[in-house]
Automatic annotation (TrEMBL):
Residues 346-427 form the Peptidase family U32 C-terminal domain. This is U32 family peptidase. Keywords: Hydrolase, Protease. It comes from the Bacteria. One of its GO terms (molecular function) is peptidase activity. Belongs to the peptidase U32 family. Transmembrane segments: none annotated. It comes from Brevibacillus fluminis. Pfam families: Peptidase_U32, Peptidase_U32_C. GO terms for biological process: proteolysis. InterPro entries: Peptidase_U32, Peptidase_U32_C, RNA/ubiquinone_mod_enzymes. Gene3D superfamilies: Translation factors (2.40.30.10).
Length: 431
């Protein structure tokens, strides 16, 4: 079933500016997949000053290669330097921004006002975007940052669709908003749970995701003998029974795939996907799907029809159930996950297409997760429709028959029922 978004039958009268699709890239490989699968820009982290210290992150050499690849394909590269800085964090910061500018980085994403000033002085021609960590929720704050030389403001996660419209009505500053990915339970991601529980500073890149741990609630009991109830420890009475779900602070994932028309009509210049810690399969699937929806709507908004296959495709990359978060009102308990998350279809990145021989219909595949003869696999890519087939035959590079591909990064050959291209992905559903 499809959903009709606008009245069909007449030529489009809307004059739409197609927004940028901004994708995460935790390492150089993910950057290349993001760009090839349709991102107009990617955001990466360097080896300091960013909020994802556990991501692969980029050396200067990686940045140089990534910038060259992105620019060759018409895409931009932004670097996140969005920590909340302490005094000792400023060592080497000016030189860092100067190097980023020399490497051709298109913009930096910054949250701390002091870091904004360092960047402006050290690399005055380097474009600055204000991070969502700065918690910008109103048009007057957006205007303030514009007067400080900020080229783009990444809005706080708590901003609604109506507030976005008001911000765009009062300002002439580029706006960026998240459309997909994990949500932090804390206000705009500003949290100290990780600091308290693990001594890892969440606001300087060390978040241990303490909010996603399993919790229980207890009541302190003053007199154990009077309580006459089972006590945990010395004076703690459990508030839930043994079979109750654990209490958690885990939000469902953000997903705005069906609301792209509203985001475009509201005038958001950049639509941002979260996930520098996510897999290549996640990045390729999510970017590819949003690319198709954005292009379809902007090409002919008056006759745009949302396809159910887009929703189904995006959920193949979801780790958790999804929500629209704050865009249409304050989230409720329905937007949280309590206890064990419901099961969702999960897929493995089984193989990457390296070559295809049209004469023999044989594809050369680089194995990424084990698959075997008889398995049902699905191929998808940026320039093709998905198709499903069974693995009927497998050979190694020397032509020897195989029953499975069970070695990491193993190069194998298999017959495919439709043409494929390099960088197409083969995946399989987890059983």
């Amino acid at each position: 079933m499809s959903t009709q978004i606008a009245t069909a039958g007449f030529p489009s009268k809307k004059q739409l500016k197609k927004p940028e699709l901004l994708a995460p890239a935790g390492n150089l490989e993910k950057l290349k997949f993001a760009v090839l699968y349709g991102a107009d820009a990617v955001y990466i982290g360097g080896q300091k000053f960013g909020l994802r210290s556990k991501a692969g992150n980029f050396s200067y050499d990686d940045m140089k290669e990534g910038v060259a690849f992105a620019h060759q394909h018409g895409a931009k590269v932004f670097v996140a330097a969005n920590i909340i800085a302490h005094n000792e964090d400023f060592d080497g910061m000016a030189e860092y921004f100067q190097t980023l500018y020399q490497l051709g980085i298109d913009a930096v994403i910054v949250a701390d006002p002091a870091i904004v000033e360092v960047c402006k002085q050290a690399a005055p021609k380097l474009e600055i975007h204000l991070s969502t960590q700065a918690s910008t929720t109103n048009w007057q704050a957006v205007q303030f940052w514009a007067e400080e030389g900020i080229a783009r403001v990444v809005l706080a996660r708590e901003v609604s669709m109506e507030e976005i419209r008001q911000i765009k009505a009062h300002t002439d500053v580029e706006i960026e908003a998240f459309i997909h990915g994990a949500m932090c339970i804390s206000y705009s991601g500003r949290c100290v749970l990780s600091n308290h529980m693990t001594n890892r500073d969440a606001n300087r890149g060390g978040c241990a995701q303490s909010c996603r741990w399993k919790y229980d609630l207890f009541e302190e009991v003053e007199d154990e003998e009077e309580a006459a109830l089972p006590i945990i420890g010395k004076k703690e009475l459990p508030l839930f029974s043994e079979n109750d779900d654990e209490f958690t602070m885990s939000s469902k994932d953000l997903c705005m795939i069906e609301s792209i028309p509203e985001m475009v009509d509201a005038g958001v210049e950049s639509l941002k996907i979260e996930g520098r810690m996510k897999t290549v399969h996640y990045v390729a699937t999510v970017v590819n799907t949003y690319r198709r929806v954005i292009d379809a709507y902007c090409e002919n908004p008056d006759e745009f029809v949302f396809k159910d296959e887009w929703r189904e495709e995006i959920l193949k990359a979801a780790n958790r159930p999804v929500t629209t978060a704050f865009f249409y009102g304050n989230p409720s308990e329905q937007d949280q996950i309590f206890g064990v998350p419901p099961k969702m279809a999960k897929y493995d990145f089984a193989g990457l297409v390296l070559e295809y021989d049209a004469a023999t219909q044989i594809a050369t595949i680089e194995q990424r997760n084990r698959f075997e003869v008889g398995a049902e696999v699905e191929f998808f890519g940026p320039k093709r429709d998905n198709f499903v087939q069974q693995v009927t035959e497998l050979w190694d590079e020397d032509g020897n028959q195989l029953t499975d591909a069970n070695k990491a990064m193993q190069i194998v050959k298999m017959r495919v029922c439709q043409p494929v291209c390099p960088y197409d992905i083969m995946r399989k559903e987890k059983k």
